[in-house]
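Example 3.2
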Amino acid sequence: MQENINIRVANPQENYLIAKHLYLMWQDIGVPKDSIESNWLEITEEYIDKARQQLFYQAFLAELNNTIVGSVSCQIFAGLYPNILKPEYRKRGYIWGVYVEPDYRRQGIAKKLVGEAIAYLKSIDCTQVTLHGSPQGKPLYSHLGFDENNEMKLDLS
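Structure, written as tokens:
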């Protein structure tokens, strides 16, 4: 089926699809509904609008027979600390919100979506790409060449 999938750039009027997929992604990885802000749609759409303006945000949609079955978002990584490195040394891209509808999984759609995001980030001169993969997604990301590493965390709850 993957041959029939059309991957295309999402337009701003489709931000709600990206937001919906992000919401569903969090549920898929076990986040309870009551742990998600009730205004998740507005929060996500506002974030996307700002990222489009400031961080070269781009989203891609997977379409099959005029039905959206998946999405991915990417942008310049805004950073967790002051970035004092020259872009030619390290300009990080970030991929987030990789989601494929359950009936269409394991058919290569996520691979195509992530591939488009990587190509876009490369086209805007990113030198590295980062993503945080779910346990279900890690085999795909490893297959695409992402390093498996450990992010050290301390749970304070």
